[in-house]
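Please predict the structure of the following assembly.
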Amino acid sequence: MIGSTLNRKLLRNLREMWAQVATIALVVAAGVAAFVALQATVDSLQGSRDRYYEEFRFGDVFASLERAPDGVGGRLREISGVTAVDTRLVAPVRIPIEAATQPPIGEVVGLPAGGDAPLNRVLLLEGRMVEAGRGDEALLLEPFAERFGIAPGDTLPVIMEGTLRQVRIVGIANSPEYVYPAPPGGDAIPDEERFAALWMDRDAVAPAFRMEGAFNDVVLRLGPGASLPAVLAEVDRTLDPYGGRGAVGRDRHRSNYFLDMRFEQLSGMATSVPLVFLAVAAFLLNVVLSRIINLERGEIAAMKALGYHNREIGLYYVKFVAVVVLLGTVGGFALGGWMGQGITSTFLRFFGLPLLEYSVPASTFVPAFAVALGFGLVGALVALRRILRLSPAEAMRPETPTRYRPSFLERLGVGDLFGTSGRMILRELSRHPVRTTLSSVGVALAVGIIVMGRFSMDAMDFIIDSEFYLASREDISVSLVGPTSDRAVNEVRGIPGVRFAEGLRVTSVRMTSDHRSRDVPLYGYPDENRLRILLDGEGRRVPMPTGGVVLTRTLAEMLGVEAGDTVRVRLREGRADERPLLVTGTVTQAFGLQGHMRLEDLNRLLGEDPAVNQLRLAVERGAYPEVERRLSDMPRVLEVTRKEQAVARMRALSGDTQRVLVLVLSLFGAVIAVGVVYNNARVALSVRARDLGSLRVLGFTRREVSTILVGEQMIQVLVALPFGLWIGRILAGLLAGTIDQEEYRFPLLISTETYAFAVSVVLAAALVSAFLVRRRLDRLDLIGVLKTRE
Amino acid sequence: MTENAEGTQQGNGEGTGNGDRLPPAVLEARNVTRTYRMGEVDVHALRGVDFSLHQGEFLVLVGASGSGKSTLMNILGGLDRPTSGSVLFQGQDLARAADRELTEFRRRHVGFVFQFYNLMPSLTARENVALVTEIARDPLSPAEALEMVGLGHRLDHFPSQLSGGEQQRVAVARAIAKRPEILLCDEPTGALDYRSGVVVLEVIERVNEELGTTTAVITHNAPIAEMADRVVILHDGGVEEERRNAQRARASDIRW
């Protein structure tokens, strides 16, 4: 029966201290919830994606080409490691529907008779498959159909190779290759409004594209253990004579690439951010528990006097900590599971992944509990050891080192500025430097976490600013069907409302240095370019040197080259051979792996006459509709984009997830601030009830007395704020580090609004906690306080 | 009461003013000093005290505040160690005992009653006693112990529901429930009104008489000394006077 009375005492103490227990458990819960929610989200998303990819046989290798006879497919099948090949027809079309401000572009994907593609299979969501031999029936990509309210039975105008046809939509579908519906081209931002896929019967539609008995797109699946680089090289070799544009693995697949980028961001956050949370929660647990145990000094001493061994007392507090941590972990697990479900379904919707597979990874419980328990025990047992080391006689006396000294500020001679209460506060704080420091660190972490949460918004703003407003000054950008004589620029300049126009040449190349290579777009700029310019990280214009190429810094790092080195460039169009190119400089940019050179040089490299394939236009306000109408009437125009729409799109893409992140992190920061301030003030109230009671007896008002107690807490909070901002910067740097990827470099810029927001949230949380404790202070039983031993 | 047949011969034969032979010493302090560091000054709480506690006796240790009586009791009870000197219990020197041994000593042999009761506020009277009986060998049951201090009817009350005197009687019950050889009471009436104080003293008297527990009561309240077999008066960290009462007064007859 040993211990049953202690267990009862444990339960009653927990109940009596419920408010403190709750705030500590909440801090633990917040840490655990963040950890569990993000892990569950990543797990579930990946699970859903993998299942989708597997069940719908998403390819491992993709290649497009000009045109090859069907027989070539047999040679692809023979490549070692390849288990399945689908040679298909994929052709660009335009869809001039009235509801869209600009004509969306589309892709027709040929389906075998019966509609059951061997790879990149179609998930039919509504309606039926296309009938074999019907060239006027199609399945339509779901996000586009939803955006424009198109249902089976509707008819859609489609321009195929310059000929307008009416296509009957018989079904709504999706496929692993269009999870992120992004139009082809360099500036691919996923956009369900401006891009549609149409699945049609291949044999029936092939004549429209003059592709009878031929294919222009290949999907391959590889067996386990196949070497991707070897397969890519072999596919390239096979397709080269047929205008192959370079095979890519899943990692460069348009839709999967965006999905991966998002997943990578998410999983970077899902591991690093919750660890920060958990560490912060654990740290606070440590601080708060050690303080609570100091408060129990008297009871611990009495238990010792009664003959309890240290290990028995130790076990009691181990149980105490375990219960609090367990409460927090279970709560956090439930909360995290629930949050994770919400986040997962938001993301699934966002990603357009159809199969919901949600599970909370049970394996996260043990590490979460262990980390929190470990830190909690360290805090509790270190404090306990200090007390147990004392003789019980000493421990039974109230802890009064009583070595107050004039505080630092007073020694500077400015003590008189503070009045008696102020001096009491200063001396109390400087008497416990470690405690004061730890509390401030706790509050600073709260501020830091909120700063980190909001930082991604700032980064997005900066990227949008620099990429869409500083570097690109056009109002409208136009993609052309292919390389077009630069006379097109003059033609466009002639459109009323166009103030200025210039042409760019963008081509896709594989850049190689030693064994390292990357597929990147290469931009050619006209001399005297005004609308699209190259800026370095400081916003300075980078001159375009003759005869060489400027690489983005990330690309140069990946290839291991610097200015003065030479890279080999393998062209994808025109002359498909490899040429050396001198690197004349590098430039820091948020986005991407890119090469930049003079238009003239790029044309020469491609062995073509002066040509452009993109147009940038500065347009007078109000002239947009007319300019857009005129542009879409031009036969070589593939796509017209208003910059403001691209920006809105970009913001919408990141907006929802960022708002969730900011909300969650702000709540967490607030919980931490409450956890620190409330517990501190409660402990201070218990320890100093007698002092404060004495002041009341001496005639101090409630307000004056609470000023002393609350003032102590507030000073710690105020001291913590600037450090918190600094910590926020460090955490933001860590976060940026986790999502610093090939094509996406987060600048470490934090706005004043973010700092102000973090400070306000923490201050508000601190004030609420202080107010709660003050209410207790107001109810202080003066006589009772003076009677008690301490 | 547990057997203590081997006794401690060292204390035997120590004389008193009356020349009577005392029973063997249970606990014996020799030349005990204790120095504290209070803030920045050294306080000499005990300056070489020789003192013994004999089997079955009721001893009252009187002294003004600051005379060192609490310090002495803490040392005798194994709550604290002397700066120098020795404290002998059953041949063992508590001054040199390890923490573990001191804990064991308190757990098996000593019951404490403190001025401020030191009850666990979250436990009922019965549970406060059970806290000790659970770790003792052959204890009284909590109910028996509380019955003995006259609180058989308040077993399930929390400290906050009991008067000061009742709380102190719970503390006494807690101290005696393990059937200790030695009962040490530090200012047991110090926080109580006269009436409650007397009740608590009656309980302590009864424990001493009925269970034969060697009892030491520390007080600054001189009239209590009349209850004792033997009185030791401390002054400024040393024994000033030691005397035997020819006749022990009943607790109920004491006035202050």
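The radius of gyration of chain B is 17 Å. The helical segments of chain B are 69-76, 99-109, 125-133, 142-148, 164-176, 194-211.
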